[in-house]
Design goal:
This is EF-hand domain-containing protein. The protein is of the alpha+beta class. The chain has helices spanning about 10-15, 20-30, 40-55, 65-80, 85-105, 120-125, 125-140, 155, 170-185, 195-215, 230-235, 240-250, 265-275, 285-295, 310-330, 340-350, and strands spanning about 1-5, 110-115, 150, 190-195, 220-225, 260, 305, 330-340. The chain has 3 domains: about 1-110, no CATH class; about 115-215, Orthogonal Bundle (Recoverin, domain 1); about 230-330. The protein has 16 helices and 8 strands. α11 runs antiparallel to α15. It starts with a strand and ends in a 5-residue tail after the last helix.
């Protein structure tokens, strides 16, 4: 499983090379400017912004409200003038976006793996496979009947990680590999299997997928984000940045005529602070939600109460401090993986997002 690392340095080096950047902008702008008007419309910009979104690990446009808000913000950066986007504006805004992306990749590099089936075959033939297969059978056999349907092996395949040579099933092409593997093995999905039969068929399906990947390898981009509280500590030490973040969070709180806000919205305020403190949105990482819930126990967040600005700031600081202490004692790691479309492989390997 060959692996390369996209850590942002090559991307920033490319953007800061005036000659290479000018050539890139000329070619990309000409490709987007299908009408040859010298100005890009909203629809013309979609491929470029969509490419940046994919590089950031965001869902496609129209699939997630939070992601769509970010896409909208990116469109807004390009179209502030309200008239079509010139090549100069495109160059300036795209440079800023990609330099920011480069900074992010330096903090959280993306590993790019070429999966050709060898790693999956090795794992499927190893002693560890049988241990995992028995565990998968136990997880699926919820009624403890001693039998499961053969079709449940498709679900079990989702337990095999990228480290073990299996691309994520979230990509439709991977599901196709598994369906063809079932056909090759010749197993009826409705057939009952006991534990011994399940382990045997599970291995056969995994090996069949590995053989397909030998003929048609897949490229997978995966990253791991560690929430360890360090960015919270950085924010708490930077008074100017902290005051600004708290002010922005307070602005979105609903208020009465006397300027107070309901305590029931404190979590909304924390969600607004989250990007400044290196935290994920509420609901994005269940383990983090548990940490947040534990930290809110430190304050009196009675839903019927109200807070003014000083009280709001005090609550947010206590919650952030509580989250930081928990993460320092037990950091949370979140891994994400996605299959790279063939048309984007060369760009990712060269450090470019699209």
């Amino acid at each position: 499983m060959a692996e390369t690392l996209m850590d942002g340095r090559s991307l920033k080096k490319f953007v800061e090379n005036d000659q290479l950047w000018s050539k890139f902008v000329d070619e990309k702008f000409a490709k987007l400017d299908k009408g040859h008007t010298g100005k890009l419309k909203h629809s013309d910009l979609e491929p470029a912004i969509s490419g940046v979104g994919k590089a950031l690990g965001m869902p496609p446009m129209g699939k997630d409200p939070e992601a769509d808000h970010i896409y909208s913000e990116m469109f807004g950066e390009f179209t502030r003038s309200g008239e079509g986007v010139t090549k100069e504006t495109f160059s300036t805004v795209m440079r800023d976006i990609l330099l920011g992306l480069g900074d992010g990749l330096e903090r959280e590099p993306i590993a790019i793996s070429r999966l050709n089936g060898s790693k999956l075959e090795q794992w499927a033939r190893s002693p560890e496979f049988e241990i995992e297969a028995v565990a998968a059978f136990g997880a699926i056999d919820t009624d403890v009947s001693g039998h499961v349907k053969a079709g449940t092996i498709k679900k079990a395949m989702g337990r095999i990680s990228v480290d073990q040579g299996m691309p994520p099933q979230s990509d439709g092409s991977v599901s196709g590999y598994i369906d063809r593997a079932f056909q090759e093995v010749g197993i009826n999905v409705k057939q009952d299997l006991d534990q011994f039969q399940f382990v045997d068929v599970y291995r056969k399906v995994a090996l069949a997928v590995a053989r397909q990947m030998q003929n048609k390898p897949l490229t997978v981009a995966h990253t791991e984000k560690i929430f360890d509280g360090k960015l919270i500590g950085t924010l708490l030490k930077d008074k100017a940045a902290l005051d600004l973040a708290l002010e922005l969070a307070w602005e979105i709180m609903p208020k009465t005529s006397n300027g107070s806000a309901p305590k029931s919205y404190l979590r909304v305020g924390l969600d607004t602070l989250a990007p400044h403190a290196g935290l994920p949105p509420v609901g994005a990482v269940p383990e983090m939600d548990s940490v947040v819930n534990e930290s809110f126990k430190m304050i009196d967040d009675d839903a019927v109460g109200r807070v003014d600005k000083p009280e709001f700031d005090k609550c947010m600081l206590e919650v952030l401090g509580g989250i930081m202490l928990q993460l320092e004692g037990k950091p949370i790691g979140v891994r994400s993986s996605g299959v790279v479309p063939p048309e984007r492989e060369n760009s990712l390997n060269s450090g470019m997002p699209f």
